[in-house]
Amino acid sequence: MLPYGRQSISAEDVEAVTAVLGTDWLTTGPAVTRFEDDLSAHVGGNPAVAVTSGTAALHVAYAAAGVGPGQDVVVAPLTFVATASAAALLGANVVFADVSPDTGNLDPDAAKAALTPNTTVVSGVDYAGHPIDAEPLREIAHGAGALLLEDAAHSIGGTWHGRPVGDLADLTTLSFFPTKNLTTAEGGAVVSPRDDLVAGARSFRNHGLVRDRAAQRFPDEGPWHQEVHAFGLNYRLPDLLAALGSSQLTRLPAFTARRAEIHARYDAALADVAEVRTPSRRDGADPAWHLYPLRVLDGRRRELFEHLRGNGIGVQVNYIPAYWHPVFADLGYRRGLCPNAEEYYAQQISLPLFPDLADADVDRVAQLVREFFGHRE
After folding, report:
1. Which among 319, 280, 322 has a CA at the least distance from the CA of 74?
2. Cis before residue 319, ω within 30 degrees of 0?
3. Which active-site residues does the annotation give?
4. pTM for this structure?
5. How far apart are alpha carbons 108 and 137 in whole angstroms?
6. Rounded to an integer, what distance in angstroms lies between the CA atom of residue 324 and that of residue 75?
7. What is d(CA 96, CA 76) in angstroms, rounded to the nearest whole number?
8. Percentage of residues in the chain with pLDDT exceeding 70?
């Protein structure tokens, strides 16, 4: 079975990880600091806070933003559920706003209409790797006294009008799951240009522990003393995984370039197939493509999915609108809330896309799609 995504691990990656095993630091050590510094160089120089997953990054970012009960968080629904659930876990009310029909990203007009007096964060998602429409979303959020969060789980390495992902929002969250654009096995990061948000993220990922004696309430207890002033969790990324991340970052430009080549090859092969729509890219966007989200326009998405799976192609569908999950249905959310997102989901199918995918495999997948719709040449 040809998977729709797969990590790319080199001998240098293996060497970087095994080298950590010979040190005194398996976690909370110098490899984490190095990885954060290495990440910073790819996100506009902004500080990065490494955590254990993309979901942890969202939880940490929302906590750093002070999200809690009585607050509203505007969220794009065409995303993995964590973009919404991490805010809900902190007690916030999630307000879903529809997406733009072309990119599947949060529509600025819909986001503006979803604002309430209690909105504290507007969360856009770089769907499939295409950056959010950052300027109007930032203006909308800041005009309401809220922060803009960019869920960039799909898009590290991309740019929007020349600015790198990680330098477009008040808070940016990254994911390093094996199928993502680089991997630490499991891992993620929070990025921000604001010192207060970075400090909040670092505190929350480490139980909220205060070790600085100048900041402690009871510093005379002894040199061993540490305090918790606000609750946090253990979301610390181990040095083993951070070392893998630093090694992977040296190849991020190559990964991004190869993903773009594969994306363009699919585009060319499927351009004349009227029954499908290839992914859109807006002027000013240089995406770091994570997915190839083909859209089936004739209602046969399920049949194409089964046809490709039956021929050994591991396609996927990304994603069910977040509020369709029963956990949100139980909270009163109903289908029909975001028509553009629901139509996108009904049409979407992700074709295989990863750096080590051979051109011959790309051509085979495209040919199977063409043949399904009766295009033999």
Report:
1. 322
2. yes
3. 180
4. 0.97
5. 6
6. 14
7. 6
8. 100
